[in-house]
C-alpha cells in the first residue's frame, strides 16, 4: 500500500467545482459549521486517518493537525509522516521512502485538502441530510455530499457534525475503487498562538532524505 498521506492527497486534492446544491436541513447544518470555523484564527486538533480497502482491511494512523486559517498554512504529523505547507509550497515528508516531495500549495478555498477540511463542502457538491446518529453521548447530524463533477475519483463523502458544538466530527471519503478514507477530528483547540516556524520546512532537519521537487 502506498503511503497513507499520499493516498489521501491524491484522492481529494482536485475537487474544485462551483454551484453547490443542498437540501434545507443539510444547508442549515453546514451554514452553522461555516460560521463557527470562520470565527477561528488557528486550529490545533488530534486527528486520525483510517484507510479501509475493498476487503475491509483497515489501517489507521493518528497524529496532530495545526492550521492557520486565513493564510492556509498547516502542518500534519501522522506517526512519522508529515505534511508542511507555508501557503505557497507543500512538503510531504516520507521517512519510510527516504524522500521529501515538494508541490505547490493548493490555494483554492473550494478544494478539499487539510487546510480546507472544515470548509471544502461549500462548493462543488450536492448535499443531502441523512438524519442523526449517536456516538457515545454526542448527537451527530449526518450529511451525504456527492461531487458535481462525475469525472473525479470520489463517489461520495459522508460528513458528520456534532450538533451541540457545530463542529465536524468526521468525514468519510468513498472512492470509485471501493476504498474508504475516514478523517476524524478530536480534542480541537482554537485561537492559540502557533509559531510560524512550525509551517516552515527546514532541510537541515532531514539530512538523509532526498528532495524531489514536483512543482
Largest sheet: 13 strands, mixed
First-residue to last-residue Cα separation = 24 Å
Average pLDDT level = 83
Number of domains: 1
According to CATH, what is the topology? outer membrane lipoprotein receptor (LolB), chain A
The CATH homologous superfamily: Lipoprotein localisation LolA/LolB/LppX
- Please, what is the oligomeric state? single chain
Just name the CATH architecture.
Clam
Radius of gyration: 17 Å
The number of E-state strands comes to: 13
What report would you give on this structure?
The protein is 11% helix and 47% strand. It is built from two helices and 13 strands; from the N terminus they run αβαββββββββββββ. The longest helix has 15 residues, at 24-38. Mean pLDDT is 83; it is low at 1-19. The chain is mainly beta.
Amino acid at each position: 500500500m502506498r503511503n497513507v498521506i499520499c493516498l489521501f492527497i491524491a484522492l481529494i486534492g482536485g475537487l474544485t467545482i462551483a454551484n453547490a446544491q443542498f437540501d434545507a436541513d443539510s444547508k442549515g447544518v453546514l451554514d452553522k459549521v461555516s460560521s463557527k470555523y470562520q470565527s477561528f484564527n488557528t486550529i490545533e486538533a488530534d486527528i486520525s486517518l483510517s484507510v479501509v480497502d475493498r476487503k475491509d482491511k483497515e489501517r489507521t494512523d493518528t497524529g496532530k493537525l495545526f492550521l492557520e486559517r486565513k493564510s492556509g498554512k498547516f502542518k500534519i504529523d501522522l506517526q512519522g509522516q508529515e505534511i508542511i505547507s507555508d501557503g505557497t509550497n507543500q512538503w510531504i515528508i516520507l521517512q519510510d521512502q527516504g524522500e521529501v516531495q515538494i508541490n505547490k500549495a493548493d490555494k483554492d478555498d473550494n478544494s478539499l485538502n487539510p487546510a480546507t477540511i472544515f470548509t471544502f463542502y461549500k462548493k462543488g457538491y450536492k448535499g443531502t441530510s441523512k438524519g442523526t446518529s449517536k456516538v457515545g453521548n454526542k448527537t451527530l447530524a449526518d450529511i451525504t455530499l456527492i461531487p458535481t463533477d462525475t469525472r473525479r475519483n470520489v463517489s461520495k463523502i459522508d460528513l458528520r457534525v456534532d450538533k451541540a458544538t457545530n463542529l465536524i466530527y468526521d468525514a468519510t471519503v468513498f472512492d470509485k475503487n471501493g476504498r474508504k478514507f475516514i478523517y476524524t477530528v478530536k480534542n480541537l483547540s482554537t485561537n492559540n498562538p502557533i509559531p510560524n516556524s512550525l509551517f516552515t520546512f527546514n532541510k537541515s532537519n532531514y539530512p538523509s532524505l532526498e528532495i524531489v521537487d514536483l512543482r
